[in-house]
């Protein structure tokens, strides 16, 4: 029920969001868990799979004529998203709540939602970096063709971000401690990254397993990203699966989020 | 003046009212807050005048923190009204946060941010913030400006916390258990800082369970026990209310007859132990005793004056000690 004038006086200046982002960015650098999980590990895996792929020097007929590394780049993108969304994003928010940092901030004019928004932005930026490093690095080092349907690829990526980040925010909403958040993330991450095809690419999975996998957020992400890589616009099914996870978990997170 | 009118519907009226009697920084009326199984705050009313240091003193669990959390809008009262410079924290949370600087218990800062970075961040939340360099100087944090928050000592962390409570140029500073866990020197330093805050024209609401702190700093004190205010007055008046107990102890230069003092109206009792004479009494006991002795040619040496304290007042009013559940509270 505030008048426009009141809002002008009491809302923090826009610059506050920039300061908040700058502080979160510094903390990301000083406690580089997000960098390690979301960037370093996928890049190491890129080198490992790229080297295996180079050694074999041939396309795998079972992989639809693609090299191992070409199949793995979407899987590594999904891996990076899972790490950032399920571990890095909730970790920061839960730690802020656990230590009382959110409580301290909530006595200032800063809207608490800005704190959440800043964490989403920081982790989204890391996810985009991961995407760029994996796609450009894959092309430069191992000769993997760039995604042939960039629009479809971008849409698949954004929906994957929405689905996974919503799950991460749900963890942040319900986990009471950083330890609990890590445990929840671990329980979710490993099955999800299995269905993404980290150990067995979907092409190697039995049909039944693959069908189940494509109903999981990372399985659907990889399916859509691979389609776009090969030049097709991703089919509706994985896009809808990702959108559904995004909506359901965003609602769950919204309903259970506590600032204290 | 009925502050209960400070509801959403009558905001404009409340504004006008606040302008009318600008002397009141904070008005709390019939505040009640329950948690499952306990009544944390029960029918609490008080008014804080602009420019004073107002103490809320009571043992742990008396409802002090819940009260200030309601004032700052972190908790919603079950009933009662709160008016912070004309604003209701339940309705105008943003305005309240813009004019109140809070230093809360169990709140923390990012361990790996540097002092200057934290100050710069919090500064950006306010429209007309204080100069951070000046604040660092005033709080003796200049040489710690590049230190990580987690590397600071307890006293330095409290000073950073105080800096953040002041960086928005608040009209009211709410300081909750500022000195808990500090060593005696750091406590005294913090007291001086709090007096400095008041001297800048900021109204201070000081929450504490240390009676010496309240006695030293506060213009007025609300004694709180089990969610209720049991007494509210100046520290001196509260102490006198406890029985006006004053005692003076001295070593006389020459022997004198007890009746010289016991016949004075101010004296209620006299005891000798060894060289020492211990006189109990009230009102202007000390001067009367010394003048009377001087009139009889006796000098009082090694004079020690003991006044009744807030602690005595608290014990008298509640039958309990402030620190029953605690050992070795710093003095």
* CATH-defined superfamily of the largest domain in chain B: P-loop containing nucleotide triphosphate hydrolases
Number of domains of chain B: 2
Q: What fraction strand of chain B?
A: 25-35%
The oligomeric status of these chains comes to heterodimer
**Unreliable segments of 5+ consecutive residues of chain B:** 1-20, 325-331
Tally of separate domains of chain A: 1
Which of globular, elongated, flat, extended, rod-shaped describes the shape of chain A? elongated
Describe the SSE topology.
The complex is a heterodimer of chains A (260) and B (331).
Chain A: H1 4-10, H2 15-30, H3 33-56, H4 68-99, H5 101-105, H6 112-142, H7 150-174, H8 178-196, H9 207-213, H10 217-229, H11 236-256
Chain B: H1 11-20, E1 24-35, E2 38-49, E3 53-57, H2 64-71, E4 79-84, H3 93-99, E5 100-103, H4 115-123, H5 132-138, H6 154-166, E6 172-176, H7 184-199, E7 203-208, H8 211-217, E8 220-225, E9 228-233, H9 235-241, E10 246-252, H10 259-262, E11 267-273, E12 276-281, H11 285-295, E13 300-307, H12 310-318
Parallel strand pairs in B: 3-7, 3-8, 5-6, 6-7
Antiparallel strand pairs in B: 1-2, 1-4, 8-9, 10-12, 10-13, 11-12
Helix pairs in contact in B: 6-7, 9-12
Give short descriptive properties of this protein:
heterodimer, A: 260 residues, mainly alpha, elongated, disordered N terminus, B: 331 residues, alpha/beta, Rossmann fold, Alpha-Beta Plaits, 2 domains, six-stranded mixed sheet, four-stranded antiparallel sheet, 12 helices, 13 strands, globular, disordered C terminus
């Amino acid at each position: 029920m505030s008048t426009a004038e009141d809002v002008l006086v009491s809302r923090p200046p826009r610059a506050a969001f920039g300061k908040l982002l700058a502080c979160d960015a510094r903390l990301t650098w000083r406690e580089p868990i997000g960098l390690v999980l979301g960037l370093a590990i996928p890049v190491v895996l890129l080198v490992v799979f790229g080297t295996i792929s180079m050694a074999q020097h041939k396309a795998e007929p079972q992989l639809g004529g693609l090299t191992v590394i070409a199949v793995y780049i979407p899987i590594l993108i999904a891996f990076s998203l899972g790490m950032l969304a399920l571990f890095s994003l909730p970790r920061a928010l839960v730690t802020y709540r656990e230590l009382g940092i959110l409580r301290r901030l909530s006595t200032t004019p800063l809207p608490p939602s800005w704190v959440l928004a800043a964490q989403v932005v920081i982790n989204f930026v890391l996810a985009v970096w991961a995407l760029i490093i994996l796609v450009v690095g894959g092309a430069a080092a191992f000769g993997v063709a760039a995604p042939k349907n960039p629009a479809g690829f971008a849409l698949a990526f954004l929906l994957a971000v929405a689905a996974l980040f919503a799950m991460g925010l749900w963890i942040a909403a319900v986990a009471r401690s950083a330890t609990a958040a890590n445990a929840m993330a671990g329980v979710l991450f490993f099955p999800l990254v299995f269905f993404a095809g980290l150990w067995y690419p979907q092409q190697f999975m039995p049909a039944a397993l693959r069908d189940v996998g494509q109903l999981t957020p990372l399985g659907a992400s990889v399916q859509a990203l691979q389609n776009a890589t090969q030049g097709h616009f991703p089919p509706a099914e994985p896009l809808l699966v990702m959108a559904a996870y995004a909506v359901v978990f965003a609602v769950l997170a919204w309903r259970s989020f506590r600032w204290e | 003046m009925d502050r209960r009118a400070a509801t959403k519907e009558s905001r404009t009226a409340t504004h006008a009212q606040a302008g009318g009697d600008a002397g009141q920084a904070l008005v709390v009326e019939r505040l009640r807050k329950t948690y499952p199984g306990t009544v944390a705050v029960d029918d609490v009313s008080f008014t804080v005048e602009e420019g004073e240091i107002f103490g809320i003193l009571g043992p742990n669990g008396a409802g002090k923190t819940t009260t200030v959390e309601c004032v700052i809008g972190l908790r919603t009262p079950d009933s009662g009204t709160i008016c912070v410079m004309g604003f209701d924290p339940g309705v105008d949370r943003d305005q309240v946060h813009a004019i109140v600087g809070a230093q809360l218990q169990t709140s923390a800062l990012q361990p790996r941010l540097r002092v200057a970075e934290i100050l710069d961040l919090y500064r950006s939340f306010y429209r007309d913030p204080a100069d951070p360099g000046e604040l660092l100087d005033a709080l003796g944090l200049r040489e710690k400006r590049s230190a990580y928050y987690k590397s600071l000592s307890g006293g330095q962390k409290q000073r950073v916390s105080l800096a953040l409570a002041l960086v928005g140029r608040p009209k009211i500073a709410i300081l909750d258990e500022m000195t808990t866990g500090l060593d005696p020197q750091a406590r005294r330093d913090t007291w001086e800082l709090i007096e400095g805050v008041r001297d800048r024209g900021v109204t201070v609401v000081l929450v504490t369970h240390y009676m010496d702190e309240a006695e030293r700093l506060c213009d007025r004190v609300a004694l709180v026990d089990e969610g209720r205010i049991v007494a509210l007055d100046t520290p001196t008046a509260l102490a006198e209310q406890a029985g006006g107990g004053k005692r003076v102890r001295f070593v006389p230069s020459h022997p004198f007859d007890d009746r010289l003092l016991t016949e004075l109206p101010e004296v209620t009792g006299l005891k000798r132990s060894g060289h020492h004479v211990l006189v109990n009494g009230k009102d202007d006991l000390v001067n009367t005793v010394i003048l009377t002795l001087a009139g009889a040619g006796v000098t009082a040496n090694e004079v020690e004056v003991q006044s009744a304290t807030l602690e005595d007042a608290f014990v008298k009013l509640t039958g309990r000690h402030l620190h029953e559940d605690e050992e070795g509270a710093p003095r």
